[in-house]
Amino acid sequence: MYRRRRIVVFGGVAVVIVVIVIMLVSLLTPKPPGGPSPSPSSSPAPSPTPSGSPSPKPTASKTPSPEPTPSFDKTAHSIDNADSIWVVVNKLRALDPIDYAPDDLVYPDVVNINNQPMRQQTADALVTMFDAAAADDIGLTVQSAYRSYATQVSVYAGWVDSEGQEAADLTSARPGHSEHQTGLAVDVSGSSGECSLQICFGGTVYGKWLAENSWKYGFIVRYPDGFTDVTGYEYEGYHMRFVGITLATEMHDTKVPTLEQFFDLPDAPSYE
Ligand SMILES: [Zn+2]
User: How far is the CA of 39 from the centre of ligand 1 (A)?
Assistant: First the structure.
């Protein structure tokens, strides 16, 4: 008796549930077109749109939110050691030893006009950067890279011969004071050769691409426009200096244009 009643009750409940489910399903099922005066929003509200919304999520997580640098460690690498990727060389800071030569020079697989090598880390970063530029239809080549102390002796002497010492000091470093001797500096040209090694390079599509993107690969435009009094050199939009992604990113984010300013070093407009 009790059991029968229970069965009956359960049966009734089950029927009610089934009816409710059927009603819900019929309510949720998209009505066929031409239904009796559906609300105007019926057709533009297809359920696939909301269900497609999860796709933007990965995009959002990909964008690395500008993570606040917890007080950048300016002593992570030496600025004095000639082997350091942060070494600061200028007219007041000679390399030590003055005839320093890196021991990991390589020739990256890129167009290399003067066929000069560079340090391994510089080469790796450069290839990545050139690939990225190529993907943006910007063809880049290496104009010059490592120059030994002995080479710099003759390069500088050549400039003095042709331009006089004062003019020479604005474009060419004295031996022992050149970033090119570190193996971390590369003069980059555009595939067209436009404004190669000239001030106007900064205005070319190549120079603009480098100014905008080189930091992502660990390079800085070492002699930026308007900072001759700090660096001692005229604007060289083509002279890329490898410092590593960490420092290049920090300088980019904090908008500090020169190594001298970043490391609170004295301006180096001329030799003492
Ligand atoms: Zn250079």
Answer: 69
Write the burial class of residue 82 (CB in 10 Å: 0-12 exposed, 13-18 middle, 19+ buried). buried
- Specify whether the CB–CB gap between 260 and 268 falls below 8 A: yes
At 165-193, the pLDDT tens digits run 999 998 889 999 999 999 999 999 999 99
- Name the active-site residue from 166, 179, 194, 236: 236
Q: Are 267 and 260 in contact (CB under 8 A)?
A: yes
- Separation of 33 CA from ligand 1 center, angstroms? 70
User: Which of 237, 245, 203 lies closest to 221, judged by CA?
Assistant: 237
Told to judge if 166 belongs to the known catalytic residues of this protein, a careful annotator would answer: no
Give the contacts of 67 (CB within 8 A, at least 6 positions apart). Answer: none
pTM of the model: 0.74
pLDDT digits (tens, 9 = 90+) for 89-115: 999 999 999 999 999 999 999 999 999
Alpha helix locations (H) across 104-238? 120-135, 149-163, 165-171, 205-213, 228-231
Round to whole Å and give the CA distance between 46 and 68: 41
- Nearest Cα neighbor of 271 from 178, 146, 150 is 178
**Residues whose CB falls within 8 Å of the CB of residue 265, separated by 6 or more in sequence, listed in order:** 79, 88, 90, 92, 93, 259
Which residues are in the CB-under-5-Å shell of ion ligand 1? 187, 239
Q: How many CB atoms lie within 10 A of CB 200?
A: 12
